[in-house]
Amino acid sequence: MPSPGEFKEKRWLALVLLCSAQFVVVLDASIVNVALPTIGKALDFSQENLPWVVNAYVLTFGGFLLLGGRTADLLGRRRVFMAGLLLVAVASLAAGFAATEGQLIAARAAQGLGAAIISPAALSIVTTTFSDGAERNKALGVWGAVAGSGGAAGVLLGGILTDGLGWEWVLWVNVPVSLIAFALSPRLIAESRAETGKRAFDVAGAVTVTAALSILVYALVDANSAGWGSTQTIGLIALSVLLMASFVAIELRAAKPLVPFSIFRIRTLTGANVVGLLVGASLFSMFFFISLYMQQVLGYSAIHAGLSYLPLALVIMISAGIASQLVTKLGYKPVLAAGLLFIVAGLGWFSQVSVGGSFTADILGPSVLAAAGLGFSFVTTTIAAVSGVEESEAGLASGLINTSQQIGGALGLAVLSAIATSRTTDTLSAGGSSLPNALTEGFQAAFLGGALIALLGFVLTLTLIRGKDSRAHVEIGKQAAAEAA
């Protein structure tokens, strides 16, 4: 086993390993989208069940993130990270061999559970491995670049693998990556956990918050098919609120709570999570609507649509690296505010897409702006959410920001899809409009809704993120640079 000094020397190799694992997590959410029609034919899926190939993953991922983060703090971050990798490898193998729709949906749910264990554990390892300031900002810049571009890469890779090798390889591609990362983890990552004496586990809190989040995500992802005013949707959201209220009551009385509410006294952490939720709500659905616009309106093939994401992925990686450097010099508040304005501009431009649109004017231009905004905002919300947090609560803080982004993404996709569908239906009902034209009007409305959500995020960045904390972060970076010199 390497010594602490050797682990420190290998920390940048460890970052590559951690980012590879996070890339798989993000990839899994998008890589199956292009393969859905092929999977539907191969396994004889009913049309109403086919979306659950995606939803089953999103449901368990969003529901178990908070539990995964706190478990990493208590049981050991490396140990929990490795357990998540093993679960993803086994679940991915089983998913590729699935012979029925039930088997595939169950395997995808297990993949989501593994991802919910990996993601907060990996982020908390990054937080505890790299010291606060320029070094951690640089590491989180790499993290943000990989995580932010994973969605775009998933669409491209999904199309290539489905056409070239078969839909099974969309799922099997995770297996070697996960197993290699599992084998290398003990050599590159030092074990760490919260040093709190007796490691008591808040079972009641864990069950209630996981159930509340899972039910909320389920209600949101199924709202468009069940109906927003349906008994199912309203009842599930009410049940989620009731469970969340029970969770708060349990936590206030627990000796060792799963989520110590004292962490929310850090105003910037709270603000970063609120803004992170709005970033997820405005941007995560963008990939969904761009894909539909390219294929259903412009007539792009799956691979053509995937290749069209390359500029977007490239800009995300570049902007994330720039953001990590700017945060060190300017603080996270002005960089996050600038990122949200980029998102507003990009989605506002997307709201002008047309039936006879061109790649340059309707996809490339707004993609560059939105991608720059994603790189800036994703990195800065993550930095702000883990800054000033005690090492013993790194996993909790990582789980919180991951949960905020995922719940935001599910909420945004559900709401904006409902807006798009409603606008398309109304346009067709009015008569005199073709299906491509009606779809385009729906996409325009959804993009405009996303721009308004991002604008709200910009306003809340100015009010909730403390300028004092942002400036203090710059001073920490200067002190660290002076000590290094």
Observed structural traits:
globular; 485 residues
In short:
This protein has 485 residues and is mainly α. The protein is built from 20 helices and no strands. Helix 7 (134-164) packs antiparallel against helix 15 (310-330), helix 13 packs antiparallel against helix 17 and helix 17 runs antiparallel to helix 18.
User: Given the helix and strand composition, which structural class is it?
Assistant: mainly alpha
Q: Categorize the overall geometry.
A: globular
Oligomerization category of the chains in this entry:
single chain
- Contiguous uncertain segments of 5+ residues: none
**Fraction of helical residues:** over 70%
Please count the beta strands (DSSP E, at least 2 residues each): 0
- β-strand percent reads under 5%
Discrete helix count: 20
Distance between the termini: 31 Å
Main sheet: strands, sense, barrel: none
One letter per element, helices H and strands E, the order comes to HHHHHHHHHHHHHHHHHHHH
Mean pLDDT: 84
> Gyration radius, to the nearest Å?
22 Å
What do you see in this structure?
The chain is an all-alpha fold and 485 residues long. It has helices at 4-9, 11-30, 36-42, 52-75, 77-96, 101-129, 134-164, 168-172, 174-188, 203-221, 223-226, 231-253, 267-297, 302-307, 310-330, 332-350, 359-386, 394-430, 435-464, 467-484. 81% of the residues lie in helices and 0% in strands. The chain has 20 helices and no strands.
